[in-house]
């Protein structure tokens, strides 16, 4: 009998990796966020990244962060968490969501309403912002568990060459 490989990644690292890979689909020049929703059987039931709604041109709508409201990305962009929920394939009750950046208040509402019961994140760099504070208040009141992913893993390299398959 052969011993199994010892250097495999954990479920949390795997699903956060899917979230980070999904973020690479974002065309936002300043912020790329991905999200991955997983059920109790560790099956992926939804993924998303931040971008404009289907049918809205990423060539015509603005990507700017500053300026008049309608001249910025903010009224148009769907966050990764919302896209993952909208792209999901089932009822999300008792699922967990992996996202690199702690959710804002708007995404928190969608997470709570969808039935997701746990949020796993990498960064809370906007912890002092009002949208993040509001999200934390709502998560606490709704009983949504939140936790920062603790890992020693820094990078995962993907190799698309056929020689390594």
Task: Walk me through what this model shows.
With 165 residues, the chain is an alpha/beta fold. The protein is built from four helices and five strands. The protein has a five-stranded mixed β-sheet, with helices on both faces. Helix 3 packs parallel to helix 4 (130-142). The chain is globular, with a radius of gyration of 17 Å. The protein starts with 10 loop residues before the first helix and ends in a 17-residue tail after the last strand.
Task: Give the helix/strand layout.
Layout: H1 11-23, E1 34-38, E2 44-49, H2 80-86, E3 96-101, H3 105-114, E4 118-123, H4 130-142, E5 145-148
Parallel strand pairs: 3-4, 4-5
Antiparallel strand pairs: 1-2, 1-3
Helix pairs in contact: 3-4
Which terms would index this structure?
alpha/beta, 5-stranded mixed β-sheet, single chain, 5 strands, 165 residues, 4 helices
Short description:
This protein has 165 residues and is α/β, with parallel strands linked by helices. The protein has 4 helices and 5 strands. Helix 3 links the parallel strand 3 (96-101) and strand 4 (118-123).
């Amino acid at each position: 009998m052969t011993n199994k490989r010892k250097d495999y990644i954990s479920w949390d690292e795997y699903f956060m990796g899917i979230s980070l890979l999904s973020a690479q689909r974002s065309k936002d020049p300043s912020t790329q966020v991905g999200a991955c929703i997983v059920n109790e059987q560790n099956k992926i039931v939804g993924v998303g990244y931040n971008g404009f709604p289907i049918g809205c041109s990423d060539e015509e709508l603005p990507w700017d962060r500053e300026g008049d409201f309608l001249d910025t990305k903010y009224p148009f962009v769907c966050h990764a968490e919302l896209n993952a929920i909208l792209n999901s394939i089932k009822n999300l009750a008792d699922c967990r969501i992996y996202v690199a950046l702690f959710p804002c208040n708007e995404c928190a509402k969608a997470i709570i309403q969808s039935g997701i019961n746990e949020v796993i994140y990498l960064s809370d760099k906007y912890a002092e912002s009002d949208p993040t504070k509001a999200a934390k208040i709502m998560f606490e009141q709704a009983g949504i568990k939140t936790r920062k992913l603790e890992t020693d893993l820094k990078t995962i390299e993907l190799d698309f060459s056929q020689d390594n398959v």
